[in-house]
Design goal:
With about 160 residues, the chain is α/β, with parallel strands linked by helices. Helices cover about 55% and strands about 15% of the residues. α2 (about 35-45) packs parallel to α3.
C-alpha cells in the first residue's frame, strides 16, 4: 500500500489514525507538529500527508505553505487537512493553500479511508499519463518503438540530460 505521514499534536488521535491506517495496510510515519512533519516529508518522502491545522511550533497551514512554495518535488503528493477548525472560512483557507481535501474532527474513519484511496488513485493516474507522454516523446525523438513504460524507462536511463 502507501506510505502516509500523520501530523497530529494530540497523541491519542494520532495513535488512532496510525492504527487504522496500518490496519488498512499502509506504512505510517508520525509527527507531533508541522516542523517535525516537514522534516519527515523531506526524509521519508511519503505518498500522502494527513495534517492537523492548529499545532505548536509550525501549524498545518505553514507546513503546507512551505511545502508548496519551497519543495516542488512534492507537488504531486496529496495533502489532507484534518482539523477541529470546522468553519467554512477555515476550510476555504485550507483549500486556497493547496490542500487536496479538508476533513473535520471528529474523524469519520470510513470516509478518511475512501479519501486516501481516491487521492492515491488520482496520483497513480497522473503518473501513468505522464509516463504515456514520455513514451510518445521518446518515440518521436528516437524513432524507436517503445511499447511499455519499463522499456521507455530503461531506454531513457542511457540518455544524458541536456544542459
Amino acid at each position: 500500500m502507501a506510505k502516509i505521514l500523520c501530523v497530529e499534536d494530540e497523541p491519542g488521535l494520532r495513535e488512532d489514525l496510525v492504527e487504522t491506517l496500518e490496519l488498512a495496510g499502509h506504512t505510517v510515519i508520525e509527527a507531533a507538529n508541522g516542523a517535525l512533519g516537514l522534516a519527515a516529508i523531506l526524509a521519508e518522502k511519503p505518498d500522502l500527508t494527513i495534517s492537523d491545522v492548529a499545532m505548536p511550533e509550525m501549524n498545518g497551514h505553514d507546513l503546507l505553505r512551505v511545502l508548496r512554495e519551497s519543495h516542488p518535488e512534492f507537488a504531486e503528493m496529496p495533502f489532507v487537512f484534518l482539523s477541529a477548525l470546522a468553519d467554512r472560512k477555515d476550510q476555504i483557507a485550507g483549500h486556497k493553500l493547496g490542500a487536496d481535501d479538508y476533513r473535520t474532527k471528529p474523524v469519520d474513519f470510513e470516509i478518511m479511508h475512501v479519501i486516501i484511496d481516491a487521492k492515491l488513485q488520482q496520483v497513480a493516474r497522473m503518473r501513468r499519463q505522464k509516463d504515456q507522454q514520455i513514451l510518445k516523446l521518446y518515440g518521436a525523438l528516437t524513432g524507436a518503438p517503445v511499447r511499455d513504460h519499463e522499456g521507455a524507462r530503461q531506454a531513457l536511463n542511457g540518455i544524458e540530460p541536456m544542459t
